[in-house]
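Protein modeling request. Please complete all fields; requests missing the sequence field cannot be processed.
Requester role: graduate student
Desired output: 3D structure, token encoding
Chains: 1
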Amino acid sequence: MAPVSVNGRSYRQPARPVVVVCIDGSEPEYFERGIAGGTTPTIARFRADGTYRLARSVVPSFTNPNNLSIVTGVPAAVHGISGNYFFDPATGREVMMNDPRFLRCGTVLAALAREGARTVVITAKDKLRRLLGHEMPGICFSSEQADRVTKDEHGIERATELVRMPVPGVYSAELSEYVLAAGLALFRRDGADVMYLSLTDYVQHKHAPGDPVATAFYAMLDRYFEAFDREGVVLGITADHGMNAKSNPDGTPKVVYLQPLLDAVAGPGRARVVLPITDPYVAHHGALGSFATIHLTAAAAQAAAATRLAAVPGIAAVHDRAAACARFELPPDRVGDLVVLGDRDTVLGKSPEEHDLSLLDAPLRSHGGVSEQTVPFVLNRPLDATWVRGHAGDLRNFDVFDAVLNGGA
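Delivered output (409 residues):
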């Protein structure tokens, strides 16, 4: 079959089954610790005999923009998903960006499926399902709602019969394992040409590399990677973003609250803080991440606000809309007048009363900024030297489908 063209890239039809796994929140140190400690022997083997590199994710380093970049092969400036959450000027409301109407281009998955590839998407959280499966003939469901699937909507019935695990709670490590177990069972039962498995960062938000819970979780992932490898698939593994500790020595979140600072400069009610990390799962992070956008009602206040925020300890950078969109490849109509980034140790909030920190039952670990942009990029096969040379300068996590479909040695 002829290659498919998607968003300016050409992708070969899979000559053998392809499986891509996105490990949500997978800071590269998790793999490094597993290799050093002997708890991830499959990843160690891939490093020796396959491909083991680092790549850059999309900024903001959040779930939705990066998963959509991975399946479209392009940055958010093209696909339009600039965060988990944004201010919609058309309605004057802040909304979740999980509806396909916000997506501005097609996906590699849909294009391959339309050409006859048997395509499967399984994601941990249901918030991603409709975006990832947009216009894709095939199977697409979430482990969060595996007990609610229908043939018409999800392309499969009785998904819970694939594995013996009960449907996990959304705040659990098992939510990710269910994705892998269901994907492996479905592959063994029915086969697939292309499979995309997207996990959740519940463990990474709570447990740093080297923590026993994290070590056990990555050992579990490693066992599934070995199982898929034994099935003869071309396996690609990457992440949507990394993760860093964002807490003070006493264990409280290290937060810069932006709204009081902006009210002092621009006047009360004249600046809107939007936190694109916001999603329905606030117990993960309390809606605190290291990326924020600011909408100002008075253009004259922009320079003063930027100067004030840039002087605050914990704020790594403040960019105007044009500079932020150019640097981070973002859609200008979905970004505020200012973009603010926290440093490696700091998250950004609205105001203290806007965040219920009682939901956090562990010292905060979060993401969103440049400090969480480096992610693993692993294949169970070596890459062709020509492909490697073509991506030597700046490997991105959204090159993974290009690698598994076009880069085989």
